[in-house]
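Subject: Sanity check before I submit

Could someone independently write out the C-alpha cells for this chain? I want to compare against mine line by line before I put it in a report. The sequence has 87 residues.
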Amino acid sequence: RAALSGDPRAALHAFYRYAILTLAERRMLRYEPSLTDRELLERASSLPQLETLRELISLHDRAWFGLKGATTEEADHARALAERAVA
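---
Independent answer below. Compare away.
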C-alpha cells in the first residue's frame, strides 16, 4: 500500500521492514525490534545476501532518519533490493 500511496519514504520503509521480517519469519535472521541496524547486520553476517541487505539498510537509514526523505527512484531501488534480499 505504501508504494502506491505516493509517499516514497513510507514505501522505502515498508520494503525495509518486508525484507527484515521475511528473513526473520524464515528463521534466517534472529530479529528483535530493539536491535539497531548495525546489530541486525552483525546477525546477518553469514547470509549470502548480506551486501544486498547492507545496501537496503543504508538506503533506509538515509531516508528514514536523514533530513532529505526519499525519491520515487530510491523507493523503486529499495523494492528491488528487498526482493533480492529475500530471494
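---
OP: Matches mine. For the report I'm noting this point. The chain has one domain: 2-86.
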